[in-house]
Structures are given as structure tokens and as C-alpha cells.
Write a structure and sequence with these properties.
alpha/beta; nine-stranded mixed beta sheet; three-stranded mixed beta sheet; disordered N terminus; Rossmann fold
């Protein structure tokens, strides 16, 4: 498959518990027949007493979504816990920063779920590595479907955390899914605006029209049998003109720090058109009176997306700036996570009570 750099990112448990060997697996046989397309895998130990469990479930259009569910240390099978769905950055998977945030929040007493978006990672969807904004929104509601039927989850206390590209999609999901009781974002990207205008309005209207012309031509060619054209959301070559924020992304995705084989940052060139046509904040004011928290780094290239969302949203809302942090710093840097995770915990404890 031809890979061409075009532009970079202007980037359970279904009821009761039963014992299986030394692990308690939230699963009951009769529920497996009631939810035949849902699969529950054995629990695994992770850090600080948190247990993690791989699960899979269908979304509304029957694409199989694969996720990891994290359980608080020493969870009580007779209790109901608040839950948080964690969406990954654009092109990211559950094993990266989404899983890290899910782990950290589970340590604080939440049941959390980090998922692979449709068409990516272990989740289904074909063709692979395409972007369908409506389905990215559906990914959040599908996770709510699953958690709402989870034996350890209080379905009246489910929140969402969207990181980077998932931030914009999570806003759109919260506007139409009233089961989401509180929404937070970290380093949010409005992917639609980023694709329409480029980072910091670096793409002109004429340039956008030219890209759409090229997309139309490429669709015509691919229908006739031409090789699919893929692009990367990160630069493939670095030189003296590569902006620092792009280098920050590469330092995460292309190094052992955050690299994962299921997260290549490649996707189809023709995906740019539906992304340009997606407006993340078109109904953001309707989320009120449910609360919104936007967390951004002081030095983040994406900070203006959170500021724009904050301006358009209605109360209760908060824009929280982490001093000194860049966009990618908030993915995993301990010195910044200690601030952002505490803020997330304070927010969700207040509104998922």
C-alpha cells in the first residue's frame, strides 16, 4: 500500500462475579447468551492493585469494538462504581495514553474503559485505517452501552474522557448521548477544524478546495482499481523546518515511549473529506447543564481548540491550563500528569456522585 505524507496532525462483566482460579471474572453464563456478541476475557493484574480485563462488544452498526476495562484495587463485587470511558488520540490505541489514563483513574476508584476505535487496533471495521467521524462518535456511545450493562457500574454515574482527537468526537457524542453525565477532555483536537483550516489557520480556503479536488480524483481512480493512497498524520521526514509540536508527536509515537504496532498514524487520503465536513462543537451548548472540563497545556499547539470549545459551551464549564505543558506532555509525562489526573479526579468525584 502506497504511503504518502500529505499533512500531519495539525493533530465485565455483565452481571455478577464468579471465581475462576485466582481471579474474579465479572461474567455469568446466562448473560453470555443474552449478549451473544460480547466477549469477556480473563482478568490480568496490573500496577498498584488495579486489574484489567479485555472485552469486546458490537457498536450500533455491528462493528466489533475491543477495549480494556480497568477495575479499582480491592473492588467490592457488591458495590456499584462510577465509570469513565477514555477515548484515545487520533490514530492512537488503547495501549497508549488512553490506557495510561484509564489505569490512573482506576487507581482512584473508578471502573474505566479504554477502547480501540473502529477501523483501528484490535477493533473491527473494514477497510482498515479510515476515518469516519460519525462512527468515531458512535464508539463512545457503544462503550456506554457496554458499561450500562456492567455489574460493577452505576449506569447513572458514567463519564467520558476524550484525549486529543477523541476530545472533539467526545464533545459530539456527549451532545447526543444523555447517559454521559460529565465530560472532560485532555489536549483536545477539533479534527474537523484542523483538517479544514490547518493548525493555527495555516491552510487557506483555496488550498482546502484544491485538496477536495484531489480527493475527488483519487476516489475516481480507486474505484477503477488504483492503489489506495494513504497519508500519515505525522511527518515522515524531519528537517530544520519541522515545527517543534511535530517533533513532540514523533517523540511519543515513534519511540519506545509511546510506540505501539497498532498505531502507525497512517490513514486513507480520502478520509480528509468527511473529516473536513465534521463540526465537533456544533451542538456543544446543548450539553448544559451537564458539566464540561477542558484541560490543555500552557504551551500546547492545540490549546486554542479547548479555548474555543470553552467559549461556545454553556455552564457549568471550566478551562484548566497546566503550566509549562505541551500537547504531548499531557499524554504521559509524570510531572504534568500529577496535575491533570488530580484535576480529573476532582471533576469526576464532584459530578459522578
Amino acid at each position: 500500500m502506497k504511503k504518502i505524507t500529505y499533512l500531519f496532525i495539525s493533530i465485565l462483566s455483565l452481571t455478577s462475579i464468579k471465581n475462576t482460579s485466582n481471579a474474579q471474572i465479572p461474567m455469568e453464563n446466562k448473560k453470555q447468551t443474552e449478549f451473544p456478541n460480547t466477549k469477556i476475557y480473563p482478568l490480568r493484574d496490573t500496577e498498584n492493585g488495579v486489574k484489567v480485563q479485555k472485552v469486546s462488544y458490537p457498536n450500533r452498526i455491528q462493528i466489533n469494538v475491543v477495549a480494556n476495562v480497568f477495575y479499582p484495587p480491592n473492588y467490592d463485587i457488591n458495590k456499584k462504581y462510577p465509570a469513565i470511558v477514555v477515548g484515545p488520540p487520533f490514530g492512537g490505541v488503547k495501549e497508549q495514553t488512553a490506557g495510561l489514563h484509564a489505569q490512573k483513574l482506576a487507581e482512584l476508584g473508578y471502573v474505566t474503559l479504554a477502547f480501540d476505535p473502529a477501523f483501528l487496533g484490535e477493533s473491527g471495521g473494514y477497510p482498515r485505517y479510515i476515518e469516519v467521524p460519525e462512527i468515531k462518535v458512535e464508539d463512545f456511545s457503544a462503550a456506554i452501552d457496554f458499561l450500562s450493562n456492567h455489574s460493577l457500574v452505576d449506569k447513572k454515574r458514567i463519564g467520558v474522557l476524550g484525549i486529543c482527537g477523541s476530545g472533539g468526537y467526545s464533545v459530539a457524542a456527549t451532545a447526543i448521548d444523555h447517559r454521559i453525565k460529565a465530560l472532560a477532555t485532555v489536549s483536545m483536537y477539533d479534527m474537523g477544524r484542523a483538517r479544514r483550516e490547518g493548525i493555527n489557520n495555516s491552510t487557506s480556503y483555496d488550498q482546502r478546495m484544491k485538496i477536495l479536488d484531489e480527493i475527488g480524483e483519487q476516489r475516481t481512480k480507486e474505484f477503477a482499481g488504483a492503489e489506495r493512497k494513504d497519508i500519515r498524520a505525522l511527518p515522515e521526514k524531519v528537517d530544520a523546518n519541522t515545527p517543534k509540536f511535530a517533533l513532540d508527536f514523533l517523540d511519543y509515537y515513534d519511540t519506545p515511549r509511546g510506540n505501539h504496532p497498532n498505531s502507525t498514524a497512517y490513514y486513507s487520503f480520502t478520509s480528509l473529506a468527511p473529516m473536513m465536513n465534521f463540526f465537533s462543537f456544533s451542538n456543544i451548548e446543548t450539553i448544559s447543564p451537564r458539566p464540561l472540563l477542558f484541560i490543555a497545556g500552557e504551551k500546547a499547539v492545540s490549546k486554542y481548540f479547548s479555548a474555543d470549545a470553552y467559549q461556545k459551551a454553556k455552564e457549568p464549564k471550566e478551562l484548566f491550563i497546566v503550566p509549562g505543558a505541551t500537547h504531548v506532555d499531557l499524554y504521559d509525562r509524570p510531572e504534568y500528569l500529577k496535575t491533570s489526573i488530580k484535576k480529573l479526579d476532582d471533576f469526576f468525584k464532584q459530578y459522578l456522585k
